[in-house]
Design a protein that fits this description.
The protein is built from 27 helices and 36 strands. It binds FE2/S2 (inorganic) cluster.
């Protein structure tokens, strides 16, 4: 049908099918600012304005929009500097989002801005609650909504002509002292209303830097706030085909027969592939370094399916609709096999999930027992420790399977380039692993594959999987045409990866004085149908959590710790990497267990934890015993800011006034009832308040394994290209890498043009995982910058010496200082970097000033955190409302307080879902209950508790600027802190998270 759409003030004529959604029509016309997040419009990333009102473009037909005014983000504003042409610049909302650090991955940003624009047109002076409600239809998995809400309030003020609030943070630059913002809040305003900057407790003798430590604007924020075509799917290519996958409806079955003739005969179908069409290459989808620390147990397509959602066939067609129709025409005859859905039955079941002869074991995997990995770690003498204890505590806990739920689904485009090389443009955390791992699967040498990682709309570990690249690539090989493959939200739930669910047994020995004498954890971990990340995720469950508590006194010198685990196959969707990488699974049982022990033995819960917690100068106990399947190497922990984290967060949340205070606990218990005045109508409230704490430590990269590279070259104007293989998933890593390089080179961050990543052009990097980028890739960028700085100084010294030939004043390179875009001699004379660049490139002894460096760390210095939670529990319904989360974090020196606090706020929000509502469940046939954002609930902007982040800086000696990791630790301790707060409120334990109303209600009535 022929339509005319009025978009951003211009009419567009199009000829399209009646079923075309407005989302598809807009994206087809090149308005890539509107994004696909899910089929039902529940993510809200497809929000546009229709006659000024926010609507989901995916839920409206293009034909329904005819005759209405459509506005997309592209209409709002543009980069203020467009060469000779002057523009109105960016919209105040775009500016505020950019300046406030509200753009992380940026996938939801256009939708949030449009929803806010609609609000401000109706209500120029909204309250925070009104802002939260207005953007509540747009889910954000990255930010925790703190900074987007702030941005809207700030833009509203500016649009009212009130100007904007000064940024109160002074950081450590220019001799400034950070302001304790908690003391400067206007009366009656909450923290989130008045600030986006975290409180930073600065090292007393900290060095002052020009850009490191400053809240620099994210290097990609401007383009993302404009909705520029920055993501994998924002890509146009002539002859593009659309891929679809036929997924198994059975949890365990053999494919006896498969007939694709009808599908192939359908007009518009370019290819249909089954296992019979592809070479049989066994591999693992876990995006990890070589050699892969796990079994090889997967095929692109197989004659056996092992979970509901496993692959059966691939289709490429001219449109998505034709591809879907083709799937329905594929006839498959299955032989149904017995299933294992309960991890407790795996090792004793006669059913074998992996009986293929190509299976390749790793370490102690054993497919005969459905065992993907086995871990047995003994540190010290655990049995002796138990014998020396005054009391032994044993209990069992359970942690659920949960989804990463990045708002941008998995998406990939593949095509042959003019040199017959296969280009894979993919939303991945691990581009170099994709290239290496796909090569044998596709029958291509590594050198004939180029992987391009554009901007990523969130990954959280889900894109550390080489999950769908092979689908599109096989279809491109089959058809010679470009192929786009994008998961639907339902496919994310049934076919992507998730956090490993585990059943965990704890046994802890304690002396009367509170000393832990021995601590033991056993984890039965469910890897689902494939063993991707089985060993390494589950290893971290014990490695990072059990290491925190070593005991006290003599036990501190020789702790007794045991961590055993069996990682078993079941006929459920595979688990994999998810931010935190096994560690949140460890802290739920560990910290809930410690809380119970503290209460049973009458210890103060904070004192008990700190008494037994690891301290600076001590060995990481697991470093002598385990290293992700590799040789262990003993490692001393040099910086531990845990006690100060506890002190800061304890004060911020008001622990001393609330813990053990019955009056406070009942402060939610105002007498409620009818307003008739009759006392007989009155009834006590059922609400009880509680407060809880949990501590955490994580890691910073994998020692002797994670490697990152960086290259820097100088341009004619004294600016620099920084190329890194590291993958910014929205975390801001490009920004902090640019900050560190800019610091060394003495230039503002806008002079660093950062690009990540392309396997043809950027240096190798293992990718974004294990909280490694700031630490590993940051050190590489710093080293590369130091090489460039040396070249600049040599040339500048010569230039300055030549100028002063007559006076005979010579300048040595090592005396030169780089700052403010100048090379400065000790006597104050200087030469601009742009002159140095012109001299190098055009005038004298020409050379390209550049530096390449890489870094692999011998250590993994842990960050530490104190997490506090305040909750209200309704004893009648079991409903737990988390009112406040305060987290104090020792992540070493904070390179950028805005991006770092954004990581903490977003991480706490993901962990909040793990604490109270997120869970993936299956029926007796292995069919998923949760298949969309209706049943699987993500916190919305209007449901959030108050979040507060405090950084307690330490100077980590192994990093050039003293940094440690920040991205994963906020996932670790929210759930146990909430569980402990629920116990504090109502006196009962829920031992399996999430703490749902039903579980609380049942626990109360036990
Ligand atoms: S910034 Fe909102 S989903 Fe990533």
């Amino acid at each position: 049908m022929n339509l005319t759409l009025h978009i951003n003030g211009t009419d567009y004529a199009l000829d399209t099918a009646p079923s075309t959604t407005l989302l598809a029509a807009l994206r087809g016309l090149g308005f890539h600012g509107v994004k696909f997040g899910d089929e039902g419009g529940l993510s809200g990333s497809d929000t546009i304005l229709l006659d000024g009102k926010p609507v989901n473009a995916g839920s409206v037909l293009a034909a329904q929009a005819e005759g209405h005014k459509v506005a997309t983000i592209e209409a709002l504003g543009e980069h203020p500097e467009q060469g000779w042409k002057s523009t109105d610049g960016l919209h105040p909302l775009q500016k505020a989002f950019i300046e406030n650090g509200s753009v992380q991955c940026g996938y939801c940003t256009p939708a949030q801005i449009l929803a806010a624009k609609s609000l401000l047109e109706k209500n120029p002076n909204p309250t925070e609650a009104e802002v939260r409600e207005a953007i509540s239809g747009v889910l954000c998995r990255c930010t925790g909504y703190v900074k987007p809400v702030q941005a809207v309030l700030k833009a509203a003020a500016e649009m009212r002509g009130e100007g904007t609030q000064e940024n109160k943070y002074t950081g450590t630059g220019d001799g400034g002292t950070p302001i304790d913002l908690s003391t400067s809040l206007p009366d009656g305003e909450t923290l989130t209303q008045t600030r986006t900057m975290p409180k930073v407790i600065v090292m007393p003798d900290k060095q002052q830097w020009q850009t490191v430590g400053k809240p620099e604007i994210k290097v990609d924020a401007v383009k993302l706030a404009q909705g520029k075509p920055a993501f994998a799917a924002d890509f146009e290519k002539r002859g593009l085909l659309h891929a679809k996958v036929l997924f198994s409806p059975h949890a365990h079955a053999l494919i006896k027969k498969i007939d694709t003739s009808k599908a192939k005969a359908l007009e518009g179908v370019a290819a249909v592939l089954t296992w019979q069409d592809l070479p049989r290459v066994v591999y693992s989808t876990a995006g990890q370094s070589d050699p892969l620390p796990g079994p090889l147990d997967a095929f692109s397509l197989d004659y056996k399916v092992r979970f509901v959602g496993d692959r059966v066939a691939f289709v490429a067609a001219e449109t998505v609709e034709i591809a879907e129709k083709a799937l329905s025409l594929i006839e498959v005859e299955y032989e149904i096999l017995p299933t294992i859905l309960d991890s407790r039955e795996s090792m004793t079941s006669p059913t074998r999930i992996h009986d293929e002869p190509e299976y390749v074991n790793f370490a102690d995997s054993n497919p005969e027992k459905n065992l993907a990995a086995e871990i047995r770690i003994d540190i010290g003498d655990v049995e002796k420790g138990f014998a020396e204890a005054d009391q032994i505590f044993e209990a069992e806990y359970e942690v659920p399977k949960v989804q990463q739920a990045h708002i941008e689904p998995h998406v990939v485009v593949t095509y042959w380039d003019e040199d017959d090389r296969l280009v894979i443009r993919t939303s991945t955390q691990v581009p170099f692993h994709v290239r290496r791992m796909m090569a044998p699967v596709l029958g291509l040498p590594v050198k004939r594959i180029r992987v391009i990682k554009p901007r990523i709309g969130g990954g959280f570990g889900g894109k550390q999987e080489v999950l769908i690249e092979d689908v599109a690539a096989h279809l491109t090989i089959a058809t010679k045409r470009p192929v786009l493959y994008e998961y639907t939200r339902e496919e994310e739930f049934i076919a992507a990866r998730s956090r490993h669910p585990m059943r965990i047994k704890m046994k802890t020995g304690v002396k009367k004085d509170g000393t832990i004498t021995a601590n033991s954890m056993y984890a039965l971990s469910d890897t689902g149908a494939y063993g991707c990340h089985a060993l390494t995720v589950t290893g971290n469950t014990g490695h990072k959590s059990m290491a925190l508590y070593v005991g006290d006194g003599e036990y501190r010198k020789a702790p007794n710790i045991r961590f055993y685990a069996d990682v078993v196959y079941t006929n459920t969707p595979p688990a994999g990497a998810y931010r935190g990488y096994g560690v949140p699974q460890g802290y739920w049982p560990l910290d809930r267990h410690l809380e119970k022990i503290a209460r049973a033995m009458g210890f103060d819960p904070i004192d008990f934890r700190l008494k037994n917690a690891i301290r600076a100068g001590e060995y990481h106990p697991f470093s002598v015993a385990w290293n992700e399947g590799r040789e262990p190497r003993p490692e001393i922990i040099h910086t531990v800011g845990l006690e100060q984290c506890v002190a800061q967060a304890r004060a911020a949340i008001g622990w001393d006034d609330k813990y053990g205070n019955e009056e406070w606990r009942n402060s939610g218990s105002k007498v409620e009832g009818q307003k008739s005045g009759s006392t007989s109508d009155l009834r006590p409230s059922t609400k009880r308040k509680g407060i809880g704490i949990a501590l955490a430590m994580q890691g910073t990269a994998i020692p002797y394994l994670d490697m990152g590279g960086a290259s820097i070259k100088m341009n004619d104007d004294g600016s620099f290209n920084l190329l890194v293989g590291a993958t910014d998933l929205g975390t801001g890593s490009d920004t902090v890498l640019a900050q560190m390089a800019a610091e060394v080179l003495g230039v503002p961050i806008e002079d660093m043009i950062c690009y990540s990543s392309d396997t043809d052009f950027t240096p190798f990097d293992v990718g974004a995982y294990a909280s490694s980028t700031t630490y590993i890739s940051g050190t590489a960028a710093t080293k590369a910058a130091q090489i460039v700085a040396e070249r600049i100084k040599e040339r500048a010294a010569r230039m300055l010496s030549e100028v002063n030939k007559e006076t005979g004043t010579q300048v040595k390179p090592e005396e030169i200082r780089l700052a403010n875009r100048m090379a400065i001699a000790p006597d104050g004379r200087s030469v601009p970097l742009s002159e140095v660049a012109l001299d190098a490139l055009h005038r004298n002894n020409q050379e390209q000033i550049m530096g390449v460096a890489s870094y692999v760390s011998p250590v993994s210095p842990p960050p530490f955190a104190a997490q506090f939670a305040e909750v209200t529990v309704d004893t009648e319904t079991g409903q737990v409302t988390v009112d406040r989360l305060v987290m104090a974090v020792d992540s070493g020196i904070i390179i950028n307080p805005v991006t770092a606090s954004g990581q903490i706020e977003g991480g706490m929000t993901q962990a909040l879902g793990y604490a109270v509502c997120e869970e993936m469940r299956y029926d007796e046939k292995g069919v998923a209950y949760e298949r969309d954002f209706d049943r699987y609930h993500l916190f919305r902007a209007d449901e959030m508790p108050e979040l507060e982040t405090i950084f307690v800086e330490t100077l980590e000696p192994s990093h050039p600027f003293g940094a440690k990791a920040v991205a994963e630790i906020p996932l670790d301790a929210v759930a146990p802190a909430v569980g402990n707060a629920v116990l504090d409120a109502i006196g009962v334990n829920v031992d399996d998270n999430p703490v749902t109303p039903e579980k609380v209600w049942r626990a109360l009535r036990k």
